Structures are given as structure tokens and as C-alpha cells.
Give the backbone structure.
Amino acid sequence: QVQLQESGPGLVKPSETLSLTCTVSGGSISSYYWSWIRQPPGKGLEWIGYIYYSGSTNYNPSLKSRVTISVDTSKNQFSLKLSSVTAADTAVYYCASSSGYDWAPDWYFDLWGRGTLVTVSS
Amino acid sequence: QSALTQPASVSGSPGQSITISCTGTSSDVGGYNYVSWYQQHPGKAPKLMIYDVSNRPSGVSNRFSGSKSGNTASLTISGLQAEDEADYYCSSYTSSSTPLVFGTGTKVTVL
């Protein structure tokens, strides 16, 4: 079955850029919406944004100025870049998928990666 | 966009039924049938339990059910089992600047 796996550095310095990749295995990245969601330690979930396999994106306005999500269909991967990070960006970052249509996603996530903890510290 | 409001904790004995509420506004929960619920065990990724207010994904026990009235959605767990002890989060589409908002989360304890 389709699986998602996050990868990337577990430690990022303040003011630098956090970069994560999600690899989709067991299925094609096409025809789905791909999101990043984060969870600070001991806290709730926050949707960061999504990308459609075609490349269209939608970001959380609270993070929009710092976020870029991209897709590489040839590698069956999509990626997250979050710039100018601070300690407040320390969180477990999840990649997740949604079905939907060309004009809008289904607003629920039926498949999640295991998550990866990213700590922002000097 | 503020998070949807959930009780911090709910508890029940094995076999009992419990209900978790998720309160929003007419711009999110009350305005759209796009409420979903997730179960999260410690150290694990969230798992989709209910989508579009009351639909269960394949493989999810029918002990879990969802409903909505006005600006409040609810998740009911019937026949409570030890394995149901986890954190639960609701989420909803919203017409505000952020298209998706999560709830504050509820810790379910099986006594």
C-alpha cells in the first residue's frame, strides 16, 4: 500500500532554512494533494500547506511568507522549505495526503507519514 | 483563525460511551460538512477516524461515529476499550484566511 516517509535534518540553527522531503512509495504522487502538518512538542496540530501534483499550492497565511512546498513527480517526492526559523518552529513535521478534484482537495488526510522531529537550536 | 475548541480531557469506563465536542463558528464547523476527526496515540502519527462529519474510512471500527449540530461537531466512541485511550483532534474547512483549522485536542482516558 502507499506509504509516506519524511526525511531531513533533525537540527536546524535559528535564522536558517528548514528543509524536509516526503517520499511516496507504493503508489504514484499524481492525482493527489500533498500536505505538510506540524505539531510542537506537547501541543496541537497545525496545517502548513499543500501542493497538488500539478504544482498548484495553498499555504497557511500565518506561515506563507516563509514557506515553499514543491513537488518532484519524477522522484515521487514533495518537499518543504521553511525559512528564517526560530525556536517556535521546533516540532514534529508530518507529510500527509488528501484526495480531491482538480479545483479543490478533500479537507481530510487519510494517509500520514510517521513524522520527523525538527529542533531549532544553535 | 483560532483553533476549534475541544474539552481538554474526557474519560470513561470500559464499555461506556463518551462524546467529544468540537466547537467552531458559522465560518467553519457550522458552515460546511467538512469536519474530520483524528486519533493519535503517543509518539504516533494521527489516524483518520471520521471525515465529512459522519463518514468512517474503511477499517475504522463502527464504534466511532460523528455528527454535527449548528457550530458544534461531536465524536462518539461507544463500547469504550483500552485501546481507545489516545488524543483526539477535530478539524474543519474554514472560509477564513486559513482554509483548514484543527481543534485544541482532547485526551481520552479509559478508567
In short: Chain A touches chain B through 18 residues (CB under 8 Å). The CA atoms of residues 67 and 75 of chain A lie 21 Å apart. The radius of gyration of chain A is 14 Å.
